[in-house]
Amino acid sequence: MATNEAKGSLLSSTVTLSNSMTIPQIQLGLYMMSGREAKQSVHWALQAGYRGFDCAQVYRNEREAGNTIREFLCSDENTEGLRRADVFYTTKLASNSTSYAAVRRSVKNSVNASGLGYVDLFLLHSPYGGKDARLTSWKALEDAVGDGEVKMIGVSNYGVLHIEELMASNPRIKPVINQIEVHPFNTQTSIRHVCAEHNIMVEAYAPLVRAMRMKHPTVLELSKKYSRSPAQLLVKWSLQHGMVTLPKSTHRERLIENADIGSFEISQEDIRTMDALDEKLVTDWDPTDAQ
Ligand SMILES: NC(=O)c1ccc[n+]([C@@H]2O[C@H](COP(=O)([O-])OP(=O)(O)OC[C@H]3O[C@@H](n4cnc5c(N)ncnc54)[C@H](OP(=O)(O)O)[C@@H]3O)[C@@H](O)[C@H]2O)c1
């Protein structure tokens, strides 16, 4: 069943990056999904109208995610005639390395595992490994773009100093994205500020606070006020801050619900109330101040 007619779905919404390329503003996160779950969730998401998927080498589901996208494009279910270029696939380097050759090999392995011919966005997953590894890994990503393996490149979990270090190195290709944990309980104002200064789009990971604050009184009160679920309120908050957002779900009805947020707007006053919930909550890891 095609469900992309879901009322108020924002799945066709895109944003334009500093390189003038566009990406879907809501993408499905694939963290903590087994290969089987990733196959099922990516399939449901494609049926529902998702066109962006956030994978990583460490998620160990690149093969299943990529193959599910490829199979969908070739199947009878693809009634819209979608092509490879209509789907946006991200993956991330597990470990930065001072070996340029190791990073190039690792990127090629990811491209091959996905079976998609190229990766739309390749990210350095974290700043761990030290300055030399960060800058060598970045150079390898730049060359992967030059060789057509990757369309665009960015970083993840980069703090203010890592962004400034990369920009000070005069990179041939500037990062288009910094993917960091952002939600009302960790608003990351200083990292978002430095990204804005350098025209780097912020991708919000854990936008649902990993389901840890669904019953917070303010979230429940605003949910009731807007007649939306806590998850919808949280995803909408990240969009109204102009970010790309990556809600994850292994449930079909939830992944539809999370994108069905077109027909309401949070008032600026309520956005400020949500911003004030900041408690610098880290739901998983926080490499943003790594040396
Ligand atoms: N770069 C990084 O270091 C990094 C780190 C973390 C995450 N990420 C990316 O960001 C994505 C999202 O982050 P995340 O997966 O950590 O957390 P999240 O999206 O904030 O939350 C996912 C949790 O919320 C639940 N959920 C989903 N929709 C719901 C709904 N409508 N109602 C109630 N509960 C709901 C999910 O359960 P079910 O699955 O059972 O529905 C899951 O437990 C990841 O999948 C990954 O792609 C990147």
Descriptive key words:
alpha/beta, TIM Barrel, 8-stranded parallel β-sheet, two-stranded antiparallel ribbon, 10 helices, 14% strand, binds NADP nicotinamide-adenine-dinucleotide phosphate, oxidoreductase activity, Aldo/ket_reductase_CS, NADP_OxRdtase_dom, oxidoreductase, NAD(P)_OxRdtase_dom_sf
Per-chain topology:
Layout: E1 14-16, E2 22-24, E3 28-29, H1 35-48, E4 52-54, H2 62-73, E5 88-93, H3 100-114, E6 119-124, H4 131-146, E7 150-156, H5 160-168, E8 177-181, H6 189-197, E9 201-205, H7 217-226, H8 230-240, E10 244-245, H9 252-259, H10 268-275
Parallel strand pairs: 3-4, 4-5, 5-6, 6-7, 7-8, 8-9, 9-10
Antiparallel strand pairs: 1-2
Bound molecules: NADP nicotinamide-adenine-dinucleotide phosphate (NAP).
**CATH fold type:** TIM Barrel
User: What value does the average pLDDT take?
Assistant: 96
Shape: globular
Q: Under the CATH scheme, which class?
A: Alpha Beta
- The residue ranges in which pLDDT falls below 50 over 5 or more consecutive positions are 1-6
Bound molecules: NADP nicotinamide-adenine-dinucleotide phosphate
Helix content range:
25-40%
CATH hierarchy: architecture = Alpha-Beta Barrel
Number of strands: 10
Q: For the record, what is the CATH homologous superfamily label?
A: NADP-dependent oxidoreductase domain
Tell me the count of domains.
1
Order of helices and strands: EEEHEHEHEHEHEHEHHEHH
Instruction: Find the structural class using helix and strand composition.
Output: alpha/beta
Biggest pleated sheet: 8 strands, parallel
Spatial extent as radius of gyration: 18 Å
Give the distance, in angstroms, between the N- and C-terminal Cα atoms.
Answer: 49 Å
Strand proportion, as a percent range, falls in: 5-15%
